[in-house]
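Q: Hi! First time doing this. I have a protein sequence and I read that you can turn it into a structure. Is that right? Here it is:
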Amino acid sequence: MPLWVGAAAVLVTMVAGCGSAPGEVGGKQTPTREPSSTSAPSPALPPPPRCQAWECRARQTVNLTPGWTVRLWRGGDQQNYASRPVVELLHNRVAVQWWISPRGDGWNGSLTCLTGGPEPNCDLIDSLGMHAEVAEMLILRAGRLVHPPRAEAITNSVGMRAADLNRDGYLDVIGTTNDYLPNFAQGRVYWQTFRYEDGRLTVTGCARQSKNAPAPTRLLTGTCPTG
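A: Yes, that's right. Below is the predicted 3D structure, encoded as structure tokens:
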């Protein structure tokens, strides 16, 4: 082989060796972009269609723990007995869950919440027809509102409220009940307490209401009327 051909081959090899390696431009290393590990925030859940149909409006907001909030929505039509209270759960001000109560008139409810116990919990209390009231327990658990199916209390008279009567960190319910003897207008009225335990609200007992007497501060154990 002629000498000039061998020299040319060596020169070509040297030029090829000086070429840019993968990831380089003009012999300079270009930074490699890592895939982003930050995902876009989830969009807020819109109100359920039934809430929109009831023309519900936000009426009460309660902060549970840092970043977690519940908001009560009520309907605007006090003649619409098909409406129900609606509770919105927000995480960092973004709606992540909507819960519709199985009972209640939908336009007269309120929330009472407790945050110092084993897990944040609330009682939603609402009117139920002409005289009755209902309480539904809600628990913030693993980023969701949980309503145990048996965590419900109903009384035949108004005056229901929520309080932790046994200091276990879960709200109990204080209600009033009428014996209907001989009728509602003339009947005797009793305090009635419900204890929350193991996913249910259970009647513990009753006591006759006396004039101007304060509500019970402990769970009652007396006999309840059967009317």
